[in-house]
Fold this protein.
Amino acid sequence: MTPIFLIGYMGCGKTTLGRALARATGRPFYDLDFYIEQRFRSSVSRLFEQRGEDGFRQLEKAMLREVGEFDNAIISCGGGTPCFFDNMDYMLARGRVVWLQATPERLCERLAVSRSRRPLLSALSDSELLDFIKRGLEARRLYYERASAVFDSTQLENRRQISDSVSRFLSVLCSEGTT
């Protein structure tokens, strides 16, 4: 079976849903950022600092192609991964690309909780954070819209919602004949 690539803005639930899907299907799960951190024994933010954005994006491209060759995998991509080089073309050619879409307000709620762990967000007020998210979504929309499918990831706040989302996700994939 081909890999499933989960894309979307930070906080949309790529890792949460990806892990749950992996448990439900027995497929291996890879979080691309975590994979990069393990391979290079450094945090994404440190790699970004050391190599600059272009250097990090080159590294990300190479690691995407590495995990993208794993059969049957569910891969959670960084929010910017589809927006650089030919990453989106690669993912579309290699497997199924699903855009996890949540409302800007829900993204804001989720990101506000983890704001201190995200340097770009730590100094933003709630209203600034919402504006930042809306601008970011708009800038990435053209890339995200190329996905094979769109999945509403607004409801991933507790175990029941996650379980329901996994069931919905799998039923959509099964109805399209791609599991």
